[in-house]
Amino acid sequence: MSFLPFTRPHIDEDTVAAVAEVLRSGWITTGPKCRELEAALSQRYGGRTVRVANSATAALELALRVARIGPDDEVIVPSLTWVATANVVLAVGATPRFIDVAADSRLIDLSLVEEAITSRTRAIMPVDLAGLPVDRDRLYALAAKRGLRVIEDAAQSQGANWHGREIGSFGDLVCFSFHPNKNMTTGEGGCLVMNTEEEATLFERLRFQGITRRADHTYDCDVLGGKSNLTDIAAVIGLGQLQQLDAFNAKRKALAKAYFEYLDPNRLELPLADFEHGNWHMFQVLLPEAMADLRAELIDRMKEDGIGIGVHFPAVHLTSLYQQRGYGGLRLPHTESIARRTMSLPLFPQMEIAQVERVAQNLHRHLDQIESQL
Ligand SMILES: *Cc1c(COP(=O)(O)O)cnc(C)c1O
Predict the structure, then answer these.
(1) What is the pTM of this model?
(2) Which of 175, 173, 151 minimizes the C-alpha distance to 56?
(3) pLDDT tens across 157-186, in order?
(4) How far, in Å, from the CA of 366 to the mean position of ligand 1?
């Protein structure tokens, strides 16, 4: 039986052919395909302004710079996220202010935001972990009341919605990732949805050396930019993926439903059964507290059975960098508990329902064996 990874991108043959066409065209870096992808994304997000970059990490960092966030500023972030969310805050010289997640949704606990706000707080960066959206009504009410920018780390939530409105089609700055593990990919890549052409123009300059081209064929450089532009090779993959995003997400939803059918909620803590808003980017189960220390052994055993399990994510504030940066005394009980117990089960569009059953059966068997050793 072939190995079942926890995720795997699906690139169709039309997309493979489109990539070959770009390669043969003589123009492979940023060009018409990037502009086409930006236009297609803009159309999807209700006509809002979208610019692509070579990763969501780059797009998030540029979002902070577009929002003029830097030294002396604080940004509220969850710690149960990919390190990039907090790293970009450090990268612009600002300070991440971690707050805990809620135990049921595993998303940033919005009831803790107000007490975390100081005179330096400029923004909040919510993360739609596993593609389950943070409550946008509460989020934006809070941001408006306290005068904060919102930089949505929607890296995982392409195609998710909040009460019928697609994530990206409303709000402040919204960032998506096109990493191969995400619900649509460009190989590597990301994008930022913005409010104004002015923001988009600054984003364009920051992603490419800070230059502005002049009519006389020279250019000026008036801001320190970097090198975060996407290639047309990548963009054309994104165009193919975008057409399939809804079908991909429908299949993910069907697989998630199957997990709820086959998994025993008395042995594992299942995610919120929200089939209205999320895009099922991941299906994450939590081990019982008493078995948390045996997670690595369980993952190894599943691997021997040919099943890949992911861990998303270790708590950011407990990593060495953040311990060195002064977060050593910080306790986030829900985040730390979930981070110790979480396991991402295989879930990707090309997976079959029968494989969900196989994952569940193997998990239950190993849980019983490990439990009998306790
Ligand atoms: C994947 C991811 C990112 C970073 O995306 P890249 O495209 O790999 O830079 C940021 N935040 C979250 C929550 C992610 O899952």
Answers:
(1) 0.97
(2) 175
(3) 999 999 999 999 999 999 999 999 999 999
(4) 31
